[in-house]
Amino acid sequence: MISGLRNLKIILTVVTIITVLGIFFTTNRANFYHHLQLNSLLAKKAEQNVIHYTIKPEKLIVYNASRPSGCRRKFNRAHCLKDLQNQTGLKQCGDPECSCFPLEVFEKPTPASFLGTFPPITESMLPIEKELLDVEVLVDIKKTSSAILSKLVLVSSSTMFKVGDIINVRVDVKDGTGRQRTVGADFVQVWMKSAKGPRRASSAEVVDLKNGSYVATLRALWEGDSIIVGALPFTREASAFNFQLGREYRSINLYVGHFKKAKLKEFTLCSMFSVIPGYKLICNLTETNYGYGWYCGKPFNGNLTCNDFVFAKYYEDVYIPLTLALYNVFERHDRKIMISTQIKLKIESGRTSQPQPNKIDCTKLSRRETWNMIQPTGYFNGTVWEHIKCHNPVNQRNFLNCFKNTTLIVFGDSTVRQYYDHIRNVFICKQTTEKWTKRKWYKASHCQVPRYNFSLTWAVQELPFEEALKAPDGKTKSKPASVLLDEASSSGRIVFVIHYYVHFMRMHYSSFIERIRSLKTPIRNALKRNKNIHIAIKSPHVFYITRCPTHFSIYHGKLYMDILKTELAEFHDKVWFLNFWDMSTAFENDKMHPPNDFVWQNLRLLAGYVCNK
Ligand SMILES: *[C@@H]1O[C@H](CO)[C@@H](O)[C@H](O)[C@H]1NC(C)=O
Ligand SMILES: *[C@@H]1O[C@H](CO)[C@@H](O)[C@H](O)[C@H]1NC(C)=O
Ligand SMILES: *[C@@H]1O[C@H](CO)[C@@H](O)[C@H](O)[C@H]1NC(C)=O
Ligand SMILES: *[C@@H]1O[C@H](CO)[C@@H](O)[C@H](O)[C@H]1NC(C)=O
Ligand SMILES: *[C@@H]1O[C@H](CO)[C@@H](O)[C@H](O)[C@H]1NC(C)=O
Ligand SMILES: *[C@@H]1O[C@H](CO)[C@@H](O)[C@H](O)[C@H]1NC(C)=O
Ligand SMILES: *[C@@H]1O[C@H](CO)[C@@H](O)[C@H](O)[C@H]1NC(C)=O
Ligand SMILES: *[C@@H]1O[C@H](CO)[C@@H](O)[C@H](O)[C@H]1NC(C)=O
Predict the structure, then answer these.
(1) Which of 56, 154, 212, 255 is the most interior residue, by most CB within 10 Å?
(2) Which residues cross the membrane (predicted)?
(3) Which atom of ligand 4 is nearest to the CA of 282?
(4) Domains and CATH numbers, the chain
């Protein structure tokens, strides 16, 4: 066993050296780094008897182009590059923005090996990551898929359809030279909308044929002239890079931790992972984060201890070296990269009239259906989301009737805060917690409408989140969903909405899987304890505009859709799935924080499902 391992190490080292030399001589580019942690990583993995995958040595080269703009906050910390030792620890400037840290991983291109050696990821690889393992780092932008040159092809010969018809479209993806691609894994989206008149819109289910073609299945749901359009937000090569980043860096951003005692203070770096670049000594603050991994570098000032941690805040992205081609791929902040061809259709009244008069009420739709439905699950009629399988009678006048004698707990990030804000403003819910003094409020909030015996809580997601403050009890003020479910009363009607999404997208997806998995026991127990608790999972949503495209925002959303369905499979009969992925695709939603119209349709769907339950 041991000698086998040694042999493996030797072979690997030889292969690596040969490859590195080979690349050195063929490209004559001295500026690359060799990932030193590979061998120890492999050894550790073998020890733990975890199946491992070797990242091809060729993929371990990094290049010298700077990262795209927008992936760095505009902190002016250029001074940190000069005279660094004199500005860290005890000699920090006193403000997180100008503070310097022992390894300036923000200010200079930083290969993953500089961050330290992470423990191996024990979660097994998703098939899509396995499929993309061998994809070479992109060096020629012409070799990746091109939305402009790709084509939408109507599979049927006629462009006339009747309401209710299925419409099949093939997407033929081309590379930058116009050649047909012969491999899959591009992120292709297809949707359909009215060509004129009031807005109607719905999305398509897209299946990857793995040969460069994709099949999109749409349904004619309204009458009139319509068009089918497509987008390609991330290509195969970009997604391969996403997985590589996740595996090598684990998290491509770091948090700043504030340590404070009387007049002493120091800022250190923090993360979900126990490897903090530049810090040999680490504070394990996992207990502070209710058992979810949380670590900060230990202050250099010996008079500050780990107990003096008071606050953590999202800080800055690691400066990741990219090839010029990838740089160009990520320079684009608007990921709504449209396929240039469109398909025009005429839809006539037909077999099914919409809305179907015989549709059941949404409250009667089985919970399992909410998980099993494929796109389109509905369509926009103007600003109203019409469900395809059920009639949703909820409107502004009767919304609160669905929540009489109810405690509504919405758990999650700022997109869930939008739910709270909307209900508070539109339904005059009287806030009982501290007045919000800024728009980006990060403290749990509560309001009530006595006439309906309705109360609403926005429960703030634990770390990784935008920020977290330590409370006197030694834990942060942001209780995780798992804890809140355990604490939920055993009587009384409770509607509990759970959402995790954007704060995980800078991490490898295994972190998301672990977090979702940790909900299983609490959900199981809460459902057992209280017959009147109704749990709904808010799905990720599409948003195209992103400050830093190397966060792969919606590519993660797409992965999380599948992860949620798989991980929570045992609850498909007991918990609702709020599919806003589909809704936001049809909506062509741009911003991470969707507009009010969209937020209201989210709430309407929730109310429609749980009403009178
Ligand atoms: C740090 O500061 C001291 C005293 O101000 C100075 O002598 C020293 O050269 C500085 N160190 C570096 C690395 O610049
Ligand atoms: C991919 O396979 C499908 C089904 O076999 C076929 O219709 C399509 O033309 C193929 N696409 C390419 C690019 O070969
Ligand atoms: C859209 O809504 C309007 C009025 O709200 C209704 O008359 C019409 O039937 C709806 N159309 C479809 C296709 O659902
Ligand atoms: C950090 O502490 C938690 C429990 O508080 C423990 O489970 C975990 O293993 C610790 N992490 C490290 C890296 O020691
Ligand atoms: C730490 O505290 C001791 C005792 O009060 C003091 O002598 C020392 O200067 C302090 N060190 C720092 C870095 O503040
Ligand atoms: C790296 O640096 C060299 C020399 O400064 C430059 O020619 C090249 O374009 C840079 N970028 C890449 C991706 O090689
Ligand atoms: C709300 O609770 C009160 C007191 O338990 C009860 O009288 C009333 O009927 C309930 N209302 C609804 C709509 O369930
Ligand atoms: C309010 O609703 C709760 C159940 O959520 C119920 O126990 C309580 O009796 C209700 N209070 C009134 C005044 O109706």
Answers:
(1) 255
(2) 7-25
(3) 13
(4) 78-125+254-315 (no CATH), 135-240+332-348 (2.60.40.10), 362-610 (3.40.50)
